[in-house]
Amino acid sequence: MTASIQNMAHDDHLHDDHHHEHLKEQAERDNFGFWLYILSDCMIFATLFACYGVMSGNFAQQTEPHEVFEVPFVLIETILLLVSSFTFGMAMLGLNKGNLKQIKLWMSITFVLGVSFVTMELYEFNNLAHEGVTPQLSGYWSAFFTLVATHGLHVTAGLIWMIVMFVSFSKRGLDHENVNRMNQLSVFWHFLDIIWICVFTFVYLLGQYS
């Protein structure tokens, strides 16, 4: 009887080790795929910035950026996104502590800031359209809208990812997969902040004051 119990305990231990090893391998595959995606995104944005640079003087004798850019408005957008990076960092501190309540609180604040950023960007696009500034106006504006809108779509994807994480946390809590996905979302969100700093500097500031 004792030997049977020992064998069962041994089998359970082997099963736990096998399950842990499987989770580790799965996380490594997920992380490898995620970093490939981030690298591909870097290439996409590098290409878009290069196109913008090539088209930066191609106004086709139409509206130029300094005539319509509202840098103070865009600065508010930038501050919102930078603050959202801080709030997401606070959510990650909650993750490190295993505090699900703290994670949800700070991620909710991050979500609101992200939605505010996207809303302001859509408002800016709408104002530009009312002034006759559209992607068809010139090569410059085609490059501008493509670059800025691509970043906006990425922010929107990040917001959808947050909603998925909220649902997943409610169903499974802080399991291994959720922790790994939260770490990936953190990298993705901070990556978008870095890209936006480049957009704000090279597109809006140089476009307004060059």
What does this structure look like?
The protein is an all-alpha fold and 210 residues long. The protein is 88% helix and 0% strand. The radius of gyration is 23 Å and the shape is elongated. The model has no long low-confidence stretch (mean pLDDT 90).
Number of helices: 6
Q: What structural category arises from helix and sheet content?
A: mainly alpha
Question: What would you call the shape?
Answer: elongated
User: What is the element string, with H for helices and E for strands?
Assistant: HHHHHH
Q: Give the beta-strand count.
A: 0
Instruction: Please give the alpha-carbon distance between the first and last residues.
Output: 85 Å
The mean pLDDT is: 90
Question: Tags for this entry?
Answer:
mainly alpha, 210 residues, 88% helix, 6 helices
Q: Any chance you could write out the topology, listing elements then pairs?
A:
Blueprint: H1 2-55, H2 65-68, H3 71-97, H4 100-130, H5 139-172, H6 176-209
Quick recap:
This protein has helices spanning 2-55, 65-68, 71-97, 100-130, 139-172, 176-209.
